[in-house]
Amino acid sequence: MIENNTENGKIKISVSDFNLFYGKFQALDNITIDIPANRITSIIGPSGCGKSTFIRSFNRMNELIPSVHTEGKIFLDGRNIFDIDAVELRKQVGMVFQRPNPFPKTIFENIAFGPRAHGIRDHRILEEIVEKSLRQAVLWDEVKDSLTKSGLALSGGQQQRLCIARALAVEPEVILMDEPASALDPIATLKIEELIQQLKEKYTIVIVTHNMQQAARASDYTLFFNMAENRAGYLVESGKTTDIFTNPKNELTEQYISGRFG
Amino acid sequence: MIKDIAMIGKKSTVIDPTRNLRQRKLTQNIAFTFIWLAGLLAVAALLFIIYYVIKNGMQVIDLEFLTTRPAGGVSGKGGISTTIVTTIYLVILTITIAAPLGIGTAIYMVEYTSDLSGKKGFLGWLVNTIRTSVEVLAGVPSIIFGLFGFAVFVSYLKLKFSLLSAGLSGACLVLPLIIRTTEEALLTVPKSYREGSLALGTTKWQMIFDVVLPSAIPGIITGIVLSVGRVIAETAIFWVTLGGSYRLPQNLLSSGRTMALHVYMLASETRAFEKALGTSAILIVVIIALNLAINISSRQFAKKFSGK
Amino acid sequence: MARELFEKKIKQIQDEILLLGSMVEQAALDSVTAFKNRDIESAKVVIEDDQNINDKRFAIENAILILLATQQPLAHDLRLLAAMLLVANELERMGDYAKGIANNTIRLGIVDLPIPYRDIEKMSELAVSMLHRSLSAFMKEDIKQAVAIPAEDDQVDELFNKCYRTIVSGMIANPATIDDASLLLWVVHNLERLADRVVNICERTVFIKSGEMLEMSGSDDEIDLEM
């Protein structure tokens, strides 16, 4: 299958001269990049180079750490995310974490949690939302008869899909994924990758991954981050995944992708 | 490559596994023996106390004992009906005062300021002060709380010997306990639950109330139940705040007598030693029943939420 | 330190390709020598030895497939392995051309015909020299050299045209020899195709280094119709 080369041109998130500091320590160095809408953008790079920190800036989760301060701008659909209320932002920008973290509640309650928090009380509507989210996360068929089972009773891969369903239930526009499959077995990993492919129709997805093959398999665009001795995490190269993995422009990218460092 | 394979057959080790094995095993056996003895000793002592009290107190326990009120006098006439009721009233009052305060403080310390304890500034100082105070107060003998209660509630606020004075003093007593156990319970809730909740666009309070607290309930309840046990068992603190009336309390300002106090009074002011033992027996039974109830219900609770 | 094993295996495959290349060079030269001397025995040897060329090609292909499956090569490594697969294929086809010449040597036997031996010899020398240098450029990823070689294909094509005209004139002059003379056409055709395939190897060399597919000089037409 030959990839369609024409872009739809829409930018979902626009980062401009973004720097992030933990106290005096700089973690991100002048990042400028656009994240295209309705595409899967993967972020690769060696450990500790700031990939997770970077995506956590999109939903301002970094602010939970008191010593963090930032410079620069991040725009979501043209609005500066630092001008929006963080709670409102997080409804639009959802997140799935590395280790599946379902709440110690029933499957139904896990997914209804978000909509309830945002004010939806009608049980019929909640049921619809739960079913819709589980279907989108390709989990409905496996759990539809056991919605009252505890979320923690599911397998690892199922739990992660539950977390994805939970994130989808609040109807975000962007889904951030921080190494979503790294704690899962290979089959579960492939299921998640397929799921992500289906989701990109409706959502913009940004995924951090340590797994080169996963980035190559599952994303449309790739960003390569690196860090150096006297330099915080910085963006080395970005581009279409097919280009980056067959013919990268930057020597460092070439080396990292071929496993010569990192 | 071929050279490596040839090496496999030879013994190359410096450490011989049988070298001091006998000695190590002997040390282990001695240690385990001591540990077992210590445990058995503790259990034996406990069982002996319970046995003695129940055996000797059994004789006075009957329906009349439980349903008549104490009648006073040197021979200790009467039963313990009002003391049972007073104990219950006192427990409810103390917990009603202490639980919201204690849980609230713990929530504040863990959720709103936990990252500040290292920082400078007023809030950092405040948190450290609270924490230190709680540690210190947890070790203060209850009579001091009693004297404090006497000075402040009974005398200065003119509440006199009353349920209210005793309840307030009791609340001070168990507050550190509730704060500590609630804090522990909140800290065992994984950070990932909090992150998960916030990432869905909930406010901090929603996260605390809908995710963290429900998860921490077993631990919190443990703390409350421990406090209940403490209230039931205390004598000194209520001796100076509750008074000793054996009448049924009519309102918050009434005086009264708890079971533990009654035991003390029977033993020190009357000759009715068996009745003291009888009351003690009832007390012990109540405490055992309480502990069983806690264990069963928190296990049920945990099962419900961690999945079968 | 990173990927030592992988690099070692790639080097092994590269060595095998060089070996395959020299086997093909030898086969080409031997087949033309046998043709010149009308030596049927030598021609038979060339035909038998082609089996070795085929075997080696499959061994190389297999080794590359294994590396693709087990090492997940990306970027440059990926382009290199893909290119080596194709080059092995080109070399094997060149071996077939040599075999074809040997076959025709046998068929021609001792028939008496006007044969442009000198031109044919020149063609084969030139083609084999091109092959040798293109493989060296391939191994070194030397783009400058790789880009320079295709121009020499024009000389081979010229020689081909010359031979073609000579042979066809001979056919017209003596129609009884058409059957045998057409075998001659195949011989020079094979040499011309061999040179064309060398150009393909040069294209692959550029691809490995730069990631771009370049069509280089010369058409792949079988017969140059400009007469």
The counted number of beta strands of chain A is 10
Please state how the strands of the largest beta sheet of chain B are arranged side by side: 1-2
**Separation of termini of chain B?**
53 Å
Percent helix range of chain A: 25-40%
In CATH terms, what is the fold-level topology of chain A?
A: Rossmann fold
CATH architecture of the domain at 85-258 in chain B: Orthogonal Bundle
What is the class of chain A in the CATH system? Answer: Alpha Beta
State the assembly state of the protein chains. Answer: heterotrimer
Briefly note the structural class of the backbone of chain B: mainly alpha
The two chains with the largest interface, and their residue counts, are: A-B, 33 and 25 residues
Average pLDDT level of chain B: 84
Order of helices and strands of chain A: EEEHEEHEHHHHEHEHEEHH
Gap from first CA to last CA of chain A? 32 Å
Please mark out the parts of chain B with pLDDT under 50 across 5 or more consecutive residues, or reply none.
Answer: none
What's the CATH architecture name of chain A?
Answer: 3-Layer(aba) Sandwich
| Helix count from the secondary structure assignment of chain A | 10
> Radius of gyration of chain B from the CA trace?
27 Å
Query: Which range does the strand content of chain A fall in?
Result: 25-35%
Mind explaining what this structure looks like?
- The complex is a heterotrimer of chains A (262), B (308) and C (227).
- Chain A is an alpha/beta fold.
- Chain A is built from 10 helices and 10 strands.
- Chain A has one domain: P-loop containing nucleotide triphosphate hydrolases (Rossmann fold), CATH 3.40.50.300.
- Chain A has helices spanning 51-58, 86-92, 107-117, 123-136, 140-143, 156-168, 186-199, 212-218, 241-246, 251-257; strands at 11-22, 25-36, 40-44, 68-76, 79-80, 93-96, 174-178, 204-208, 221-228, 231-240.
- Chain B is mainly alpha-helical.
- Chain B has helices at residues 2-7, 21-57, 63-67, 81-112, 122-138, 142-156, 163-188, 191-199, 204-233, 236-239, 259-269, 273-306, and strands spanning 70-72, 77-78.
- Classes of the chains: A alpha/beta (262), B mainly alpha (308), C mainly alpha (227).
- The A-B interface holds A 59, 61, 64-66, 87-92, 94-95, 97, 99, 101-105, 113-114, 117-118, 149-153, 163, 166-167, 170 and B 115-116, 119, 190, 192-193, 195-203, 206, 210-211, 214-215, 304-308.
